[in-house]
Amino acid sequence: MDRDMSDGVFDKLFSKLVSEEIKALINHELGEASQRRLLGRWWRDLLVKIPYGRAELFLRALKDVLSDTCPSGTLSYIITQNKTASLYFFIALHGGYRKIIFPEVVHAYEEFLRTGDWGLIEKARVEGYDKTKGYVGKLKELYGRGDVSSEIIEKELMTARV
After folding, report:
1. pLDDT of residue 3
2. Taking a C-beta distance cutoff of 8 angstroms, is the pair 66, 132 a contact?
3. Of 50, 60, 75, 112, which one has the greatest count of Cβ atoms within 10 A?
4. pLDDT at residue number 161
5. What is the C-alpha separation between 75 and 91, in angstroms, rounded?
6. Could you tell me if 162 and 141 are in contact, meaning their C-beta atoms sit under 8 angstroms apart?
7. How far apart are CA 103 and CA 97, in angstroms?
8. For residue 147, which phi and psi values (nearest 5 degrees)?
9. pLDDT averaged over the chain?
10. Given this model, what pLDDT does residue 1 score?
11. What contacts 24+ positions apart, CB below 8 Å, involve 29-36?
């Protein structure tokens, strides 16, 4: 067995990594809690009405992006604390519909790697938050009219640039 592994070095390093990154994850949950007023009861009702499929995955990704980009969310924490390693993890795990909804952060990250300018990440965060709120506003409008279904979400939102 590798000496580092048998001496518990890996366990210590992994424990340190988890300890550092858990703070960013907690901020995702704080961001989610802070967006309850924006999403409201209609959001929960909407999720119940949309059967499992692409539209539901899109809605859940939308909520995640909203939580990550809001002022009390994951990215705000990463930016204010200058947590470069946390930003790397965020980008590495930023896939699926989240990447489609919020591609700005990937472009900002690429430039950040060259410049180290946290302002680029902050600008992307604000743009992503505003855009995601636009998606939520459109969804709320559709929901209020009783005109929401998987098909409508796919047609109106998943192909749109709000």
Report:
1. 52
2. yes
3. 75
4. 53
5. 11
6. no
7. 10
8. -115, 55
9. 89
10. 46
11. 29/67, 30/72, 30/73, 31/66, 31/67, 31/68, 31/69, 31/70, 31/72, 31/73, 31/74, 31/76, 32/63, 32/67, 32/73, 34/70, 34/71, 34/72, 34/73, 35/63, 35/66, 35/67, 35/70
Token digits for 58?
């899109």
pLDDT at 35: 86
Q: At what angle do helices 36-49 and 9-34 cross, to 10 degrees?
A: 90
Task: Judge if pTM exceeds 0.90.
Answer: no
Q: Which amino acid is at 64?
A: D
Our separate counts of H helices and E strands in the chain read 10, 0
**Which string of b and e fits 7-34 if b means at least 16 CB within 10 Å?**
eeeeeeeeeeeeeeeeebeebbebbbee
Query: Which parts of the chain sit beneath pLDDT 50?
Result: 1, 162
Provide the 10 A C-beta neighbour count for residue 47. 13
Q: Could you write out the DSSP letters of every residue in 45-89?
A: HHHHHSPTTHHHHHHHHHHHHHHHHSTTSHHHHHHHTT-HHHHHH
- In single-letter form, the type of residue at position 37 comes to R
Identify the pLDDT of residue 20: 78
Could you tell me the two tokens for 138?
């459109």
Contacting residues for 111 by C-beta, under 8 A, at least 6 apart: 117, 120
**How much helix, strand and coil, in percent to the nearest 5, is found in the chain?**
80, 0, 20
